[in-house]
Amino acid sequence: MARPLLKIQRYFRRKPVRFFSLILLYLTAGSLVFLHSGFVGDSGSGGRGGRDSLVASGTSASDARGLNIMSRVFKETRRSGRRYGPPWMKRARHEGGEKMRRGGDYTSNWNRALKGRNAKDVDDGRAKYIGCYVDDTQKRALRGVSFFDYKKMTVFRCQDNCAERGYMYAGLEFGAECYCGHKIQAPNASESECNMECKGEKSNQCGGANRLSIFRLELSQESARRYGSAIFKGCFHRPDNVTLALPLSAVILNMSVEKCVDMCTEREKTLAVLAGDRCLCGFPTPLFSLHELEDESLCLHRCPGEEFESCGNDEYFVVYQTQVQDNRCMDRHFLSTRAKQLVALASFPGAGNTWARHLIELATGFYTGSYYFDGSLYNKGFKGERDHWRSGRTVCIKTHESGRKEIEAFDSSIVMIRNPYKALMAEFNRKYGGHIGFASQAHWKGKEWPEFVRNYAPWWASHTLDWLTYGRNVQVVHFEDLKRDLFSQLKGMVQFLGLKVSEDRLLCVEGQKDGNFKRSGLRKLEYDPYTPEMRANIDELIKTVNAALKKRKMSGVPEEYMPR
Hints:
Layout: H1 2-14, H2 16-42, H3 48-56, H4 61-78, H5 86-101, H6 108-113, E1 127-134, E2 146-148, H7 155-164, E3 169-173, E4 177-181, E5 197-198, E6 201-205, E7 211-217, E8 226-227, E9 230-237, H8 242-245, E10 248-251, H9 257-266, E11 271-275, E12 278-282, E13 293-294, E14 302-303, E15 306-310, E16 316-321, E17 343-347, H10 353-364, E18 369-370, H11 375-379, E19 397-399, H12 404-407, E20 412-417, H13 420-433, H14 441-445, H15 448-470, E21 474-478, H16 479-484, H17 486-496, H18 503-511, H19 532-551
Parallel strand pairs: 17-19, 17-20, 18-19, 20-21
Antiparallel strand pairs: 1-7, 2-4, 3-4, 3-7, 5-6, 8-9, 9-13, 9-16, 10-12, 11-12, 11-16, 14-15
């Protein structure tokens, strides 16, 4: 016995690397076994009906639940998205999963506020409970993006992820699975069958075994309804000259949204238009601008190839935007001759200056400059960042400066104003999370946020007041108005810059208005960070700015700014 042990000892003395490799493999195997057992053990809070049926079949409830969840995970992993949308679907599912895993306690305040209350009974303007529905793994009730979180799934997290992607419905199943969709494509089930508690929220039910607890979402105006990778634009009346407005068309057997979007994507057109059994493709133009939205009920005509989809008819068209990029507004360059006037694009930080620059560059085809230099913005395509702000090669210059000397350096200015409650939060996120990042919960709940509001809120008002006082030729643009009516507001800004307006370019901008400068919204706060004292001070500042605007014979601040 001693001789074999001695040989092993000599072997490992000669090969220390192998010895440490074996130890590492042993520890890795042990960790995997531990994690696997923990996963299966945690996944087993099933509904009573599902447990009884499993026990009746001769399998223990705990084993069956674990096996059932594991099989569902692998089954869903293998499921592919629609043919024209796999890159987006995979990316969205990955991002959603990552955000859920990293979620930490960012919904904890919301959950604490609702503790002891059932989500079905809460009418908070975010979502309304519809009911319990049957779900078939082969033919889903909600056929959009799906997310899983077997540790921390909550009703709000599911609703937020679906709403962010523009879906009308959010459904929870098996206590841990979230499904999104535009239509419920399954029959009702008994409420008693949606009896599984949410993994991250024991006070609420998250569906059951093959049963969905479905909520109808109250989407914000800017939310985009999607069908796979395509964005639903709405129902529109037939243009006067269809052939000229939408030059490509074809009759498709068993028409469906998927088939039309596929065809227009392959033809490299940004619009997929359904008119009964005909599919038309093209770009937004003055002949078909998508500005006169019709009631969706006028387009309710069942698709031959998919009974739950609407394909429009000869008079009213259903329109989707494909993933194809509209290149009509992508070319940008510096001014060929030095500008005679310096035009400021002035705003308080967090009021949408970077977004406005993006829109102006696409609409005019010329770069914008900056009073500062931001390397991250230069790397994202703002080539005017490197130019000195007095170079005269850019159409306007971004600035957050205030004060007489700085303002009088410019010949004219576009002043962007945003609701201070939104602007302060946006700038706080930028300061602690970057241009499209987010401040952490520690920053919001620590001393940073109160100090920030105390210092920055007065600046929001003084910035606007200074530009109104010392600016020589001022055009005020409200961030909210630009979002609501981008075409006409942006057209006015281009005209103020003294440049020729191209309606084709403006329509192109509408299709890609967000660029890379919009926060995802998945981590928005679920509580009000403003104290009553903060609100009282900010409300007074709003009234001061409103009075100053009216004194200059301008329209006051939008109604939504004013305290109620």
